[in-house]
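Section 3.1: Structural characterization of target chains.
Under the original work plan, the team committed to producing a structural model for every single-chain target entering the pipeline before any wet-lab resources were allocated. The record below documents one such target. The sequence was received from the expression subgroup and is listed exactly as submitted; it comprises 276 residues.
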Amino acid sequence: MDPRNTNSEASKMLLSHAKTLTLHTGNLVNRSRLKKKCPGSPSEELQDCIQASLNDWFSTTKPPSKQDFPEALDCSIPEATDRISPEERDELRVSVKLFLCESVQSSIGDAVEMVCQALAVSQLDSVIIAPPWPLDGEGRNLAHLQPSWKELEALVRSQKIAAIGTSDLDKDLLEQLYNWAQVKPSSNQFNLASCCVMPPELTAFAKEFDIQLLTHNDPKELMSAATFQEALREGSKDLNIADWRLEWVLRYSIIVKSRGIIKAKGYLVSARKASP
């Protein structure tokens, strides 16, 4: 029997029985197949990473016996991950951006714990949160952000995170968050695609309260449900795959402090099968 067909059948059986799926791309800096490609956007990069990682994982996974089908599928390849040794930890900065696709607060703690375990660190240097804002711009208010921020504050108090930041807040919303929060935002990302120059009032407020302004090029929706389904189909070679939904996407960068270069970069993804 062709082993490719066996692996394809295995992937279909595993996905059909699973209820949740987590995936770690490993260090993209060392993934030769992905290095040859130059994705045009963060969304394309993520789609390529999901497809390639699933393809690699299923190609090396042996078909389980019928009684061994797990409900929680962990599609990670440990050999592809660069874990941080205690000796080099102080020389590196671990920065994370967490994209929440659904308003499930426990996802934040799960994501932080997962990346800490994957990289063998006890604390992340910074986490920037990107909550699931309504795409039409309506409902962008403090009440929408507060539950996520409270979860981040708890992780700062438990020393899992050193500093927390926000993404795409205008001056008014950033000021509201700053005045309300117990743990103040240390940074705010700004998408220059929406405006080529940072608004002066935002710059002035950030300078006064020592908030670092950063730029990014992430779209409002990092990955649509349809694109995620396509990535799963391509990665598993299963054209009749069930309806899976993204819960969150975490992107991390490991930077050498003294040289400012990226030593490692990767994604962790969590998804669940939609209820019938």
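The helical segments are 3-17, 32-35, 42-60, 106-119, 142-157, 171-180, 200-208, 225-236.
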